[in-house]
Design brief:
The protein is of the alpha/beta class. It contains 5 helices and 6 strands; from the N terminus they run βαββαβαβαβα. The protein binds guanosine-5'-diphosphate (GDP) and magnesium ion. It comes from Desulfopila aestuarii DSM 18488.
Length: 164
């Protein structure tokens, strides 16, 4: 058995895009519509000399904010149970949300390694501006990445490798 890495975050933050980049496949459906239900996807990944199981979590049927917050909270709690390592993805283009704050509160309860990832930082020029609202979450480290354009991806994977 190998470590399980779970991608968590609200719909549309780019979980499936990151899943596809890491697995170098197109197995997770990237959907521009927030809240489209997708199954969980599991794929065994070999990254350099490390092996892990990557899990992409789907969206929900409805997207009223309260339903979504509950859903994300449940997702986060399930990830804490299932995962050895958690990637909590947020949307740097959209900015920090109340759901992000709630999930961070839940994730603080675990000792498992958590990567707080701000996605959609598409170039170095965007990094300071897109990252800055997320510092209010009070986490020690934020990973600025662009799942779509590859920015920050190699450092994120190096960080992951160190935990495996
Ligand atoms: P998920 O619902 O969290 O799985 O998100 P998806 O991977 O389906 O992506 C949702 C939308 O965000 C799609 O339109 C993607 O093209 C877009 N997206 C994903 N990653 C990035 C990124 O790094 N930068 C930008 N600008 N858009 C992205
Ligand atoms: Mg998805």
């Amino acid at each position: 058995s190998c470590p399980i890495v779970v991608l968590v975050g609200r719909p549309n933050v780019g979980k499936s895009t990151l899943f596809n980049r890491i697995t170098k496949s197109r197995n997770a459906l990237v959907d521009p519509t927030p809240g489209v239900t997708r199954d969980r996807h599991y794929e065994r990944v070999t990254w350099e000399d490390r092996v892990f199981m990557l899990v992409d979590t789907g969206g929900i049927d409805d997207n009223p904010e309260d339903l979504m917050v509950n859903h994300i909270r449940e997702q986060a709690m399930a990830a804490i149970e299932e995962a050895d390592i958690i990637f909590f993805l947020m949307d740097g283009k959209h900015g920090v949300t109340p759901a992000d704050h709630q999930v961070v509160e839940i994730l603080r309860r675990t000792e498992k390694p958590i990567f707080y990832v701000v996605n959609k930082v598409d170039s170095p020029e965007q990094e300071i501006e897109r990252l800055s609202p997320f510092w209010e979450l009070g986490v020690e480290k934020l990973w600025a990445v662009s799942a779509e354009h590859n920015y920050g991806f190699n450092s994120l994977m190096d960080g992951l490798s160190e935990q495996i």
